Amino acid sequence: MPNISSVSEFLLLAFADKRELQLPHFALFLGIYLAALLGNGLILSAVACDHHLHTPMYFFLLNLAILDLGSISTTLPKAMANALWDTRAISYQGCAAQVFFFVFFFGSEFYLLTVMAYDRYVAICKPLHYGSLLGSRACAQMAAAAWASGILDAVLHTASTFSLPLCQGNAVDQFFCEIPQILKLSCSDAYLREVVALVFSVSLGCGCFVFIVVSYVQIFMAVLRMPSEQGRHKAFSMCLPHLAVVSLMVTTVMFTYLKPSSISSPSLDLVVSFLYSVVPPAVNPIIYSMRNQELKNALRKLLSYILKHQ
């Protein structure tokens, strides 16, 4: 029976079998990747360069942009290279690195979104205590906790997944190395080693989700009690981008992992995984800048400065 040491590479699932379809897929991926790099890069530059944006909300947004860049850079470049060179192979070490960094960036982003929910809660429900509860040191500690939790998640899952003996070949039914697909290649009952890491992640994720829901219940109750229509509008404008980003992440992940097996198919799994792994990092900058006048003004200043000094 072959074990894990006999696997030197994995074969990823291709988006298309025909060469004439692979190049359009490469062009599509390249366009999405460049859009994500541009959007998140502009947010990073705007927040870093404009002192008006040196507030807790934009500090967390800067961290979110970094995590989005890392997340999409973990999966999409390899998919583009495979489509361009007409191959499916990824090395064993490359697959392990992809699992580690994807879990790290994805987990850290969800924990950071939980911290951002707390930021919105304090800003709307406890505005007089905002400065004391969300000082620079507290913000740095919360962001560091989100990143550290992501690292812990990544170490646990990568170590438990790649310590399994593999007996079902090396073909991964996904366009990147995804843990559930790798577990399908393990020997019978060997995946039980992953249970501890899975319980840890699910418990932490459910706790974060409950915290976000409770925070928004409190926020909406506080907003509805505001006497000023302008104040209500401003509060909703502050919360809607964050709520949209959380909803996009949660719904796509839940559909991916909780959908009935009767509607599961390799092509559907491919599309849904693309939605939760690639689309959010690309559209998050648009979501956050669409209704944010401060960020729009900072981006205009940045772009005008760049054009002026070309």
Automatic annotation (TrEMBL):
Keyword Transport: no
Membrane-spanning parts: 26-46, 58-76, 96-118, 138-156, 195-223, 235-258, 270-290
Primary localization class, coarse: membrane
Subcellular localization: Cell membrane
Source organism superkingdom: Eukaryota
GO terms of molecular function: G protein-coupled receptor activity; olfactory receptor activity
Keywords: Cell membrane, G-protein coupled receptor, Membrane, Olfaction, Receptor, Sensory transduction, Transducer, Transmembrane, Transmembrane helix
Membrane topology: Multi-pass membrane protein
Domain (G-protein coupled receptors family 1 profile) ranges: 39-288
Signal sequence extent: none
Cellular-component GO terms for this entry: plasma membrane
Function recorded in the entry: Odorant receptor.
Family label: Belongs to the G-protein coupled receptor 1 family.
PANTHER family, alphabetized: OLFACTORY RECEPTOR (PTHR26452)
Name of this protein: Olfactory receptor
Organism (species): Aythya fuligula (Tufted duck)
The organism's taxonomic lineage, starting at the top: Eukaryota, Metazoa, Chordata, Craniata, Vertebrata
